[in-house]
Design brief:
With about 150 residues, the chain is α+β, with helices and mostly antiparallel strands. It has 6 helices and 4 strands, in the order ααααβαββαβ. It folds into 2 domains: about 40 residues, Arc Repressor Mutant, subunit A; about 80 residues, 2-Layer Sandwich (Alpha-Beta Plaits).
Amino acid sequence: MDEKDLYIIKRLIENAKISKTALAKELNLSETAIRKRLKRLERDEIILGYRAIINYKKTGLYYAIIGLNIEIEKLPTILNELEKIKEIKLIHLTSGDHDILLETITEKIDDLTKIYNTLQKIEGITKIYPSIINLTIKPQTTIKTSKNTNTR
């Protein structure tokens, strides 16, 4: 991965809908070169997908982050069980106060209670810390890298 790849990633984080034409122009590359770079980044699982930044308050959906403390030796079994819960959109292994952070999106507040009850039944989860997100003040729309990725 080189500086041009990092620039492409940075721009996609800022705007997942940016066109290949715009990227090509910004990097002084052909659209074919951009297409090849994107395919390689996807194939190498550096780019895992493209997401919209949603204002959940306006959708009526509930977005929550749930911290979990676990018995670490049961991690594989716990992860397997978490992957079965369709409302869990992201699973992060972390350092710090929690071993795992979950991101969930549900249509009803009652669905969060169901998730909580399901988590309580998973062997090896020792503590659950749910937090409903009321408002996102600063959504992730940019990324800073230590390298100078501005190749204009």
